[in-house]
Amino acid sequence: MGFNCGIVGLPNVGKSTTFNALTATAAAQAANFPFCTIEPNVGRVAVPDARLNTLAEVGKSQNIVPTQLEFVDIAGLVKGASKGEGLGNKFLSNIRQVDAIIHVLRCFEDENITHVENSVDPIRDAEIIETELMIADMESLERQMDNMTKKAKSGDKELKAQLEFFAKIRDALNAGLPARTVEVPDDMQKAVKELFLMTTKPMLYVCNVMEGDAASGNAMTERVAEMAKKNNTESVIICAEMESQIAQLGSEEEKKEFLDAMSLEEPGLNKIIRAGYKILGLQTYFTVGPKEARAWTIHAGDTAPQAAGVIHTDFEKGFIRAETMAFDDFVKFNGEAGCKENGKFRQEGKEYLVKDGDILNFRFNV
After folding, report:
1. Above 90 in pLDDT, residue 346?
2. Mean pLDDT over residues 201-223, rounded?
3. So what's the pLDDT on residue 38?
4. What is the rounded distance in angstroms from the CA atom of residue 144 to the CA atom of residue 166?
5. Distance between CA atoms of 345 and 94, rounded to whole angstroms?
6. Distance between CA atoms of residues 12 and 76, nearest Å
7. Which are the contacts of 105, defined by CB distance < 8 A and separation ≥ 6?
8. Sign of the C-alpha dihedral, residues 208, 211, 215, 217?
9. Which of 235, 260, 311, 353 is close enough to 228 for a disulfide, judged by CB 3.0 to 4.6 Å?
10. Residue 199 · residue 130 · CB < 8 Å
């Protein structure tokens, strides 16, 4: 399981440059005019995880297979997108297909790069995008509730209960609050998901800054961080232009030298992935053998059978047990044999909740 993030933002904030940096390609055309990206570009990238290299070394694995995630570069939205402005309807439909939204905000001044609103204000820009998404969600929700109301006249209690809850979401949207601010009970999770509302999706703010602000940010990124905290989400700081340069370097040594020179500990990609994992509630487990050491992505709270199903549905259907070792134990005791000798090799059943960093081997029967 990977996850799918749509990159959104106003025109000329650095969206396509960020996409190029993340995917290390030039697939998305970055240019100094609106709507240079008409069709969404999709890029798959490996999720960097130092633990995987360590496991491959301990397990003497021939190959390393990281998990992947997908980024979708969605053309720039503008004020009025919910009414079709700037090809808005097409772009909004692309946002409905992603799992999370990465909102790139311009946090730098540059008189050579025009801004569609004629001034730089990341908070205003964030509100423009969020408002357009909320307006589109409101219209979609009203249509769906109208259809459900007609069906509910037959006395369907389940539909009536859903309508009552959906009214809470409608009230939040009317109050200028995204749908994600409404706490959804377990029995309504499926119904809400089927509404395909854009503002239910987790949002990550990415502050695009000039090179000199990449390490510590600036006054604008501080304002975004405050907004993110208020909205119970995350923000990260990157310099998209610099990330593009880093992505084009040939070796890890060159990348490290570049990062050291800029007083950066890691590329912005790593920060975006880590924050993305957090807002989506994802975690990683591993399988290790002589052929390969491999990372797999699951949701936090997934059981062992659900984790097995990520490899193959038959593993979940015929699940018997999971042979489990913690990452730290696997490294400390030099692999499976050492874990067994030291009582760190466990047999877990169907109720086991997989932990981040677990090394798993599944027994199943189909």
Report:
1. yes
2. 95
3. 43
4. 10
5. 45
6. 8
7. 9, 13, 122, 125, 126, 205, 206, 207, 208, 224
8. negative
9. 235
10. yes
Rounded Cα gap, residues 49 and 174, in angstroms = 42
Q: What is the identity of the amino acid at 291?
A: K
In the chain, count H helices and then E strands: 14, 12
The structure tokens listed for 189 are: 């999770």
Q: Which residue has the tokens 């047990």?
A: 321
| Cβ proximity of 241 and 208 under 8 Å | no
The span from the CA of 208 to the CA of 297, in Å, is 27
What's the DSSP call for residue 201?
S
- Do 6 and 19 form a contact (C-beta atoms < 8 A)? no
What's the whole-number average pLDDT of the chain?
87
Tokens 């000199």 correspond to 212
For the chain, the residue count is 366
Tell me the pLDDT tens digit for each residue of 26-56: 333 344 444 444 455 888 888 888 999 999 9
Residues 148, 58: Cα–Cα separation, whole Å = 57
Tokens of 132: 């357009």
pTM score of the predicted model:
0.84
Q: Structure tokens of 344? A: 């760190």
Contact 269, 342 (CB under 8 A): no
Q: Which residue has the tokens 């908070």?
A: 123
Specify the pairing of strand 359-364 against strand 319-325.
Answer: antiparallel
